[in-house]
Each structure stands twice: as structure tokens, then as C-alpha cells.
Design a protein that fits this description.
Helix content is 63%, strand content 12%.
């Protein structure tokens, strides 16, 4: 599979889901594009994991300075109403 952007992979996944849901494909073609879809899911998952590792929050210190720390999923729970 050639290098794809995350957006291209997601678009292709949407096409695959549509094609599979239509039920119009022969079994062999359905299996082929299902396998392609699974590879794209792995690519997207890996891309998202890498992005999550890069995300960091800026935290204002008590003295007014700013520091960085890794993003934690629990951080957004405190921000939600």
C-alpha cells in the first residue's frame, strides 16, 4: 500500500464501508476490500496514536509562567461541564 495521508485513508475507508454495506459485490471482491480496510484501520490507528503522543497541554504555573506536560485523557474530564 502506497503512503497515504490520514485523510485519504479515512476517505477510502468510508468508500469501503459503503461498498460493503451495498451488498452488491461478489464475495471475493468483498473479502479483498475488507482486507484493504483492515490495513487502513491499522494505519489510521497508528497515526492517531502518534498524534496523541505529540499533544501536550500548556499549564499556567502559580508564578505566572507556562510549562508543558503530556496530554492525559483525564485532563479533559475536568474541563467538561
Amino acid at each position: 500500500m502506497a503512503e497515504r495521508t490520514f485523510e485519504d485513508a479515512m476517505k477510502r475507508l468510508e468508500e469501503i464501508v459503503h461498498d460493503l454495506e451495498s451488498g452488491d459485490l461478489p464475495l471475493e471482491e468483498s473479502l479483498r476490500i475488507f482486507e484493504e480496510g483492515m490495513k487502513l484501520v491499522a494505519l489510521c490507528s497508528h497515526t492517531l496514536e502518534d498524534a496523541e503522543k505529540k499533544v501536550s497541554l500548556l499549564v499556567r504555573e502559580q508564578d505566572g509562567g507556562v510549562s508543558q506536560r503530556p496530554f492525559e485523557a483525564d485532563d479533559i474530564k475536568d474541563e467538561l461541564p
